[in-house]
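Researcher: Please predict.
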Amino acid sequence: MRRSLTVTLLLLVALTLPTEATRRAKNPKGGQHETTRPASECSAAETQYGKCVPEHGDCGDGLRETTCRDQTTRIHCKIPCNWKKDISDCKYKFGPWGSCDADTNTKSRSGTLKRALFNAECQPTVKVSKPCSPNVKKPRGQKKSN
């Protein structure tokens, strides 16, 4: 009887250890968060953030320097590989696209600043443009005519 109880307890312990290990492995940061700081250090208002500098080229994964009092650290960041790379630390609310300008073959829209990330200096409004589509899109529900 004792032997079966011991074997049962050992099996129970053996089955719970792998589940604890997989729970730890599911953390994508590997258990360490670089951006977390002890409560005794600087607040977000005291921290100075630098621009995100890409590791290769002009977009993609990069590093951002953060300075708090006399301590400088680097945190991971990303720069989008599209038209947003110039305003990546600023979040804007954009209106609808305007009509196509026949002279320049572009359409544009403007956006107003919602918030600035990492204490970034952002323009209150921005205007973006893109080439006009060569195909005119039909509303949903209409069939193609042959």
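Model: The beta strands are 48-49, 53-54, 60-68, 71-79, 90-94, 106-116, 125-131.
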